[in-house]
Amino acid sequence: MTKLMVNGVAREFDGDDSMPLLWALRDSLELPGTKYGCGAGLCGACTVHVDGKAVRACQASVSDVDGKSVTTIEGLDPEGEHRVQQAWRELNVPQCGFCQTGQIMQAAALLEENPKPSDDEILTAMAGNVCRCGCYQRIVQAVRLASTGS
Amino acid sequence: MLKYLEELDLQPVGLAVSKLSRRAFLGTGATFALGVFATRGEAFPKWPTGGEQMPNGLRDDPLIFVSIDPDGTVTLVAHRSEMGTGSRTSLPMVMADEMEADWSRVRIVQAEGDEPKYGNQDTDGSRSMRHHIQAARKIGGSVRHMMQAAAGQEWGVPAEEVVVENHAARHGDKTLGFGELAEVAMALPVPQHDQIAYKSEDQFRYVGKGEVQITDLHDITTGKAVYGADVTVDGMLYAVAARPPVVGGKVLTFDATEAMAVPGVIGVYELPHSIPPAGFAPLGGVAVVAENTWAALQARDRLKIDWEDGPHGGYSSGPFMEAMKATAQDKGNVLRTRGEPAGAFSNASRTFGQTYTQDHMAHIPMEPPVALASVTENGVEIWAPVQSPYTTRTDVAKALEVDPANVRVNVTLLGGGFGRKSKADFVTEAALLSREAGAPVRMQWTREDDIRHCYYHTTSAERIEVALDDAGTVTGWRHNSVAPSILSTFAPDGGHQFHIESGMGHLDMPFDIANVSIENGEAFAHTRIGWFRSVSNIPRAWAIGSFVGDLAAELGKDQREMWLELIGAPRTVDLAAEGYPENFWNYGEPLAEFPIETGRLANVLNVAADGIGYGKDLPDGEAIGLAVHRSFVSYVACAAHVKVQDGKISIPEMHLAIDCGYAANPERIRSQMEGASVMGMTVALNSSITFENGAVEQSNYNDYDVVRSDNFPGSVVTHIIDHPFSVHATGVGEPGVPPVAPAIANGLFLATGQRKRALPMGANV
């Protein structure tokens, strides 16, 4: 039995603890906002926060997060009004939207760690998150907007 | 695309629905009192589009698309799939605006796959706005008139005295909201197009403004948006499959003992294999069904399968490319002749030619193929991210040998499509497995499955040669395009492209050259060839656009001058005079309404070039490249500022100019151009699917990477050519991509002197 905090709620997982956190969240814990994109830590679609740090949920097993605190997009802000989410809406960032929860979680972790990142720091921090629709220009603008208000 | 395959009797033609059915509802002789909207209603003359010719045509009946609750909530049906272009927002926005509905009180529901009801739902070909904008206005305008008439009845005043505005009808100091009027209004006769006083463009609240947010924005940013893998039903199981590495291959034997021992595995099933040409039938293989995705994935790794590769086991794309290049050197089947090209070349002062190539590509939408199917004796229900929900429905029905009437296809949001999700092989797999397992089954493709079992963008060699006179004027043009055809996926492979592919930038090379020979050489397919965003326009724009840069260098001319010289004086192309074949495909559109206008082509080139400041001084290692291309009846130019530093190619600035006729939602047009700049750069630098012994060599983003945020085209500026509604809206989703790669190559050449003629060109020089 693995015990973890997910979005502030104590949850238990009694399945195979070698299961990637991604599949535990999606298939067992009913949190589908975390997306499968590559299963290899190459695209960032499954980005969540573990104890506040951005982690690819496809690369962390359930046992890796035993006793830890996991935040998914569903728990980033109770009202969905995190400044990164607001900035995303302000700039109409998404196209298909599929990668955007991972992008938002990555951006939120970046700003938590580095509230005023330079443009280069934004580009580098977001480079692990693929957007096939190609929303990068607005993603970078939105991170900047969330950071500086402009 | 499907439509044209259907024309060729390669796909079952959908049910034809007589237009009489709607008239029958109205009742013969039903008349509708003409009202006047506000003070300035106007008619717009309808024009024909290819939409009427699509399978199951178009619908413009508000009773199909609109329902209004007593509380005033207006529910609009989105019948096109949303894969990122914004059509799920933009078409309902047009309806709402023409209706005078308040957008904040509009709810959008997604149609299931039902073309006899909704008309064509095949979301590809950049057709959603182009085919449906008139219908959307008609739907909205009808409801506005019905509200006006209902209020007139209610108050006992002439309908034309009632003003319908902002979700309510008014007369003097009396007001009734849409919700209060709905029951009476929606039972009234539906007005015909010529009975509707449409809004004038300056009366639009939302259309043409680009201020409406996409309807799913809040859900997307909070993780609540529902994509293919996000639907769950009671008792559902999870499946993955191992598929034949080579198309046309099959399972010889398999041993599932170890797979079955994985905790949570329910069953292992062999899927029926298909023999090309198999359309959208699944490839076959062995599937694992389990209690969760992880168990299924682990079990799949433990399957022991012996495969037979079949006739394509010898396909290696490297030697195949060399053979295509050799074929392209020779004369191919001549598809179009203008003037006397043979004479032009034999009389030329000199000739100049180059060959341009492109590797296969895979679409890799961020959401890999995935579908949930529930097959019971009561019927079949599907939840899937599909571009063609009605074709999906008929495909599934065929595979299960059931009546399509007993199959329901619910369309989720698509996590990207780009043409991959027009092909519902993955949905059929889910349905077959649900029937076998006796439970609802979600079939999940991994990224590796997606990259290795795609319907690939074709690979091509494009040979262009010109005849030049003493003055360096181009007097002759020969373009031989050699590429396996999409047709091979649907019919025995004749080794030649068909008229749809030839219509994408090959036959319609826009230059005003007196002697032209457009040719197609032989190439046979050895994998599943499908359509990828922009389709054959990518290799044609690549070849022609790069050739213009090559020729400019050869003749010592400026690129922009070279483009403008070749395009010539503005003209509306006279197909007969320029030797086009009778079956020339103009994206399915009537040429009279959607002509080839070279003035618009030159204009977007100039707008993009002027926008970026073409001609300005730049440091060494930096230059601006230009390219322009007409596709999906739109005109797009790309001006790419290319910079090479430490051998790495970057694009600090890019300007895209698009002429897509009337711009209904400029905000989403800009987002599509921004996206096209990124996909175009990925096409230019990265995208290469290669085959060895029939199997794909790439597997995931590690070896099939895309442009990322550390090197995307920075500062993309979109210029939208302003047109009134009377200049027909044309395609937006696809036409941005084709000019990007040649613009980058032309800029790279000017920056470094290095000319790249093979796509992808690599991220470094």
Helix and strand layout, with pairings?
The complex is a heterodimer of chains A (150) and B (765).
Chain A: E1 2-6, E2 9-13, H1 21-28, E3 47-50, E4 53-56, E5 69-71, H2 83-90, H3 100-113, H4 119-126, H5 136-148
Parallel strand pairs in A: 1-5
Antiparallel strand pairs in A: 1-2, 3-4, 3-5
Chain B: H1 2-7, H2 20-26, H3 62-65, E1 66-68, E2 74-78, H4 87-99, E3 106-110, H5 115-118, H6 128-155, E4 163-165, E5 168-171, E6 174-177, H7 178-185, H8 217-222, E7 237-242, E8 250-255, H9 257-260, E9 265-271, E10 285-290, H10 293-301, E11 304-308, H11 317-329, E12 333-338, H12 341-346, E13 350-358, E14 370-376, E15 379-384, H13 389-400, E16 407-411, H14 425-437, E17 441-444, H15 447-452, E18 460-468, E19 474-482, H16 499-502, E20 515-520, H17 537-555, H18 559-567, H19 598-612, E21 622-631, E22 634-645, E23 648-659, H20 666-685, E24 691-692, E25 695-696, E26 716-720, H21 740-752, E27 758-759
Parallel strand pairs in B: 2-3, 7-17, 13-27, 15-16, 19-20, 23-26
Antiparallel strand pairs in B: 1-2, 4-5, 5-6, 7-10, 8-11, 9-10, 12-20, 13-18, 14-15, 14-17, 18-19, 21-22, 22-23, 24-25
Helix pairs in contact in B: 4-6, 6-7, 13-14, 17-18, 17-21, 18-19, 20-21
Please explain how this structure is put together.
The complex is a heterodimer of chains A (150) and B (765). Chain A has 150 residues and is an alpha+beta fold. Chain A folds into two domains: 2-76, Roll (Ubiquitin-like (UB roll)), CATH 3.10.20.30; 83-148, [2Fe-2S]-binding domain (DNA polymerase, domain 1, Orthogonal Bundle). Chain A has helices at 21-28, 83-90, 100-113, 119-126, 136-148; strands at residues 2-6, 9-13, 47-50, 53-56, 69-71. A five-stranded mixed beta sheet of chain A has the order 2-1-5-3-4, sandwiched between helices. In chain A, strand 1 (2-6) and strand 2 (9-13) form a beta hairpin. The longest helix of chain A is centred in the C-terminal third of the chain and has 14 residues, at 100-113. Chain A is globular. The termini of chain A are far apart. In chain B, the strands form seven sheets. In chain B, strands 9-10-7-17-14-15-16 form a seven-stranded mixed beta sheet, with helices on both faces. A six-stranded mixed beta sheet of chain B has the order 12-20-19-18-13-27, with helices on both faces. A four-stranded mixed beta sheet of chain B has the order 21-22-23-26, sandwiched between helices. In chain B, helix 13 crosses helix 14, helix 17 (537-555) crosses helix 18 (559-567) and helix 20 crosses helix 21 (740-752). Chain A: Residues 1-76 form the 2Fe-2S ferredoxin-type domain. Chain A: It holds the Pfam family Fer2_2. Chain A: Keywords: 2Fe-2S, Iron, Iron-sulfur, Metal-binding, Oxidoreductase.
